[in-house]
Design brief:
By secondary structure, the chain is of the alpha/beta class. The chain contains seven helices and six strands. The structure holds zinc ion. Residues 98, 100, 106, 108-109 line the site of zinc ion (ZN).
Length: 195
């Protein structure tokens, strides 16, 4: 059976890590002023959304579980991020975050794929048509375990180190190239920036 393009694109998503991927990594940010978007994020997300990708943030926020960030502070930081995105015409379709510390041994913290799989259930996303984008090995592991293609955001150009991501990108401009390529041939292999 052939799916129409509109049906196919309705089910794909970018799963987005937050700290170190959408915004500069500040450790455990607890103040809105600490939120600074990385260059090129907004343009890439805006175009990806036009191409039919839902934008779903999937973030470990263990600062809460570690007692370093209050839930209210975390909410303020997240609100500031969404405000900065909105100023550039980008709206996240959903936000999933794990507030637990590693010692809590929860089921949601990446590298667990649980948050991605929850989004799949909640939003009808097909992981195989979707991509996980993150700067940590745990992001790539979570994406792979959920069945997504993976983009390792690697601005410093580190070696693969066994990460096994489908693509390595040094900038959001490179990520945009990948998204455009995937979008024009969603079910085929293609050879651009292959890791
Ligand atoms: Zn958790």
């Amino acid at each position: 059976m052939t799916e129409s393009l509109s049906t196919a694109t309705a089910h794909r998503a970018l799963f987005l890590d937050r700290d170190g991927t959408l915004m500069y990594d500040n450790g455990y940010p607890n103040k809105p002023e600490q939120v600074k978007l990385l260059p090129g994020v907004c343009e890439t997300l805006r175009i990806a959304h036009e191409l039919g990708f839902k934008l779903i943030m999937v973030s470990n926020q263990s600062g809460i579980g570690r007692g370093l960030v209050t839930p209210e502070e975390a909410m303020q930081v997240q609100s500031r991020l969404e405000e900065l995105l909105a100023q550039k015409g980008v709206a996240l379709d959903a936000v999933y975050s794990c507030p637990h510390a590693p010692a809590d041994r929860c089921g949601c913290r990446k590298p667990s794929p649980q948050m991605v799989l929850q989004a799949k259930t909640d939003l009808g996303v097909i992981p195989g048509d979707s991509m996980m984008i993150g700067d940590k090995i745990s992001d790539i592991q979570a994406g792979k375990a959920a069945g997504c293609r993976t983009i390792f955001f690697n601005p410093l150009g580190m070696g693969d180190a066994g990460i096994g991501a489908n693509y390595h990108c040094r900038s959001w401009t490179e990520i945009l190239h990948i998204i455009r390529a995937v979008s024009s041939c969603p079910h085929d292999d293609f050879q651009i920036h292959e890791a």
